[in-house]
Structure prediction request, 435 residues.
Amino acid sequence: MNLRRRRHLRLEERTVVSVSDEILGGSVTANGSSLIDEIVREGARRMLAAALEAEVNACTAEFADQRDDVRRWLVVRNGYHQPSKVTTAAGVVEVTAPRVNDKHADEATGERERFSSAILPPWCRTSPKISEVLPLLYLHGLSSGDFVPALEQFLGSSAGLSPATVTRMTKQWQADHAAFMDRDLAEVDYVYVWADDLHLNVRLEEAKACVLVVIGVRADGSKELVALQDGYRESGESWADLMRDCARRGMRAPVLADGALGFWKALAEVFPETREQRCWVHKTANVLDSLPTSAQPGAKKAIQDICNAEDRDHAEAAVKTFAELYGANFPKAVKKITDDDQERLLAFYDYPAEHWIHLRTTNPIESTFSTVLLRTKVTRGAGSRTAALAMVFKLVESAQQRWRAVNAPRLVALVRAGARFEGGRLIERPQERAA
Prediction:
């Protein structure tokens, strides 16, 4: 390779490195911010200004034919508002919005209507995306006092990041939860239901706050939060109040339900036709607690053979094996499975095999609770029951967006319709089989 060619390649290499450094934020402006961030913010400012101008121009053009008695236009441009700063995903940008002198009236009511920008309302100082991010950061572990140092560098300003912002958010969460618990349930059909309670430390109260949570599977297979209300630990009456309220708002009886202590009595009272499914995770822990440590590993394996059996017949055979192995020395532990609970523990085998993994435990609720406990651990407890309830509601609402539907969601509607399943497989009617 000749000398000229080598020099040319070295020049290209230095150019690429220089450009890469600038793209990666190596270059900074006079105020110490990254050049690329400044370019993005300036681009966002110009695009926002152009969008506001286009919006105003469209408004004035729409009412260009409307004039008053002295032939003056009812809707005209009138300079600009004072500059304001808006916190966006690109950082804080300064915007000078055009002003409109709007005197036109509604034809139906005769009342005067004033122009209000749909892009940037007068009260807006934070973009909807930032408004969504702030509560998520707070709910997932960032304390209100950490908002400014954590986000000021990223957004380029501390505007809208004060602890007072979180206070306003919590008030809105309380209103959102109240509206959620008053919604109509007549148009929603929950085929499967899980119910459990979560215990939180409340700083301003001596007793632990107990939050009752109900999650359901709709006929389309999607999971959804059904209800969330405070109550008392393992209280059947608290669960009964919640289920009565759901029935009052039009909730239909689920086909199968898995729940916590106190829930079963309430279910029998409000929805007696709903079948019970006992959680194998809780049952396993309960049985192992009544066994000595030396016997627990083997017993745990035997219990897993029951709940993971390929069908009901194999599960019942595994129950007999468990009773033979541990019945002589630990009868109380065996009775926890072989007594009345056996039918409730094996109820999931009467439904589609694809749904068994979802039905035999309350895992959909347990996995959601882990996020709630993380937040309450960071805050060292909520200040009051109302604040705790609002926080849990928003956490579960946020987690709900990531819940996946049950396996084979098409089969959920068949379960509601009363279809029979044996060994996890659909049993066709005689006329269907003949066709």
